[in-house]
Hints:
By secondary structure, the chain is mainly alpha-helical. It has one domain (8-132): TIM Barrel (Alpha-Beta Barrel), CATH 3.20.20.140. It contains five helices and three strands. Strands 1-2-3 form a three-stranded parallel sheet. Strand 1, helix 1 (18-30) and strand 2 form a beta-alpha-beta unit. The radius of gyration is 15 Å and the shape is globular.
Amino acid sequence: MAAGYQPVLTHPERLTWIESHYEVMKNLAKRGVWMQITCGSVTGRFGRRPKYWAERMLDEGLVFILATDAHNLRNRVPIMSEAREAVAERLGEEEAEHMVLTRPLGMTRNEAPETLPQPLMFSMPPPKKEWLRGLFGRSSPPAVRPYS
Length: 148
């Protein structure tokens, strides 16, 4: 950042060690690192655990960009509409638009980061702990299971 680059942390909600490093993620976001979550995490395509973390990060205002993480047209199709609508329901149309259009477009145009709309964490009151009771009926995310 001191050299003029804008760091973007891609799909932190899918990292297997997010539980033990979530405070680090929050601190990075507070210091200006842009968090980019994946549409498939918001919609549940990658399972309950990434969905839990994506929703928590959204609710806490940490997310700067929503991206497809599309790798090809067969396995990871670049469909953003469902996730964009889910974000709009949680955070409003304006913030959803910033995540999928305003901020990414600003990045491609090489606009100065400070000229783009700031994420909600800088403009909203402290989050309610509703995510604690959310999908899982408990105050922690689903357990990490090794791939088999």
